[in-house]
């Protein structure tokens, strides 16, 4: 039996995590807590020591990490380090290992991995979780609890390798997954993550340069705190994130700048501003922040229908010829993968029934 088939029975049992910062460290902690055999490596001696003290089995170099022959290797390094790290991994990793990552940009990462020969076993992944802190010391086994993940594929992705990553995400990692193309992920991430980082930093910049800076910061409370939270993280990490996704971030920033310029003009001219403030009424009425509503697990054997509290459920067969189109269309329509049973991927969506499967 192939390793891919073994890994799909209840999810991968051995995982290597390369990079033990906030996300990599949190994932390693959680997987180890769930009984997965985890091997970790980080280029920082101090980080390796902290991880070892926390009970993670740590090795001294990338070659040793790859030699552990894990079911899955997770690349959890900064975007700026991906190319040299991936090149070293490609020299040592067994052909049986599936490669994934946790980065916030997918297109550029796939290009790097394809360039070093790992593209055929790469399945992208991005957990939508984090804090303004960084490093292993800030990591937590609970950070990824019930997290939403984006898992990215192309029409060339081998379905058994996708199933391995989905089984990891929905199993020991404790999340649910939206299966997307790299472009859909990167556009969405620009809107809900990267542009907000830019806005948060600009709020800090505005106050930093203001003549009333001192009293403004003394008066700052919840609104400023929440609006600038992600702006207080490592600026080099944020800069790399926006730069790598510039193709989607730049147009979104220009649209925002246009809207804010129009608002400023309307305010100066005492003109109507209702359109600006009411445009997102539908989002305010329907969107719930992450954690406010969880997608319930799908019982074994469920193949469709409506579950408790109006949660719709259905399945997609990864052995079918249209699995790629089906999964991506369903995920774009709001369906999340919540379990994997062999070739069957189980999905769920909360709501009042909506439009069901998207039409072709």
Automatic annotation (TrEMBL):
<dbReference type="InterPro" id="IPR050812">
    <property type="entry name" value="Preph/Arog_dehydrog"/>
</dbReference>
<dbReference type="GO" id="GO:0008977">
    <property type="term" value="F:prephenate dehydrogenase (NAD+) activity"/>
</dbReference>
<dbReference type="Pfam" id="PF02153">
    <property type="entry name" value="PDH_N"/>
</dbReference>
<dbReference type="Pfam" id="PF20463">
    <property type="entry name" value="PDH_C"/>
</dbReference>
<dbReference type="GO" id="GO:0006571">
    <property type="term" value="P:tyrosine biosynthetic process"/>
</dbReference>
<keyword id="KW-0560">Oxidoreductase</keyword>
<protein>
    <submittedName>
        <fullName>Prephenate dehydrogenase/arogenate dehydrogenase family protein</fullName>
    </submittedName>
</protein>
<dbReference type="InterPro" id="IPR036291">
    <property type="entry name" value="NAD(P)-bd_dom_sf"/>
</dbReference>
<dbReference type="InterPro" id="IPR046826">
    <property type="entry name" value="PDH_N"/>
</dbReference>
<dbReference type="InterPro" id="IPR046825">
    <property type="entry name" value="PDH_C"/>
</dbReference>
<dbReference type="InterPro" id="IPR003099">
    <property type="entry name" value="Prephen_DH"/>
</dbReference>
<dbReference type="InterPro" id="IPR008927">
    <property type="entry name" value="6-PGluconate_DH-like_C_sf"/>
</dbReference>
<dbReference type="GO" id="GO:0004665">
    <property type="term" value="F:prephenate dehydrogenase (NADP+) activity"/>
</dbReference>
<dbReference type="GO" id="GO:0070403">
    <property type="term" value="F:NAD+ binding"/>
</dbReference>
<comment type="similarity">
    <text>Belongs to the prephenate/arogenate dehydrogenase family.</text>
</comment>
<feature type="domain" description="Prephenate/arogenate dehydrogenase">
    <location>
        <begin position="13"/>
        <end position="298"/>
    </location>
</feature>
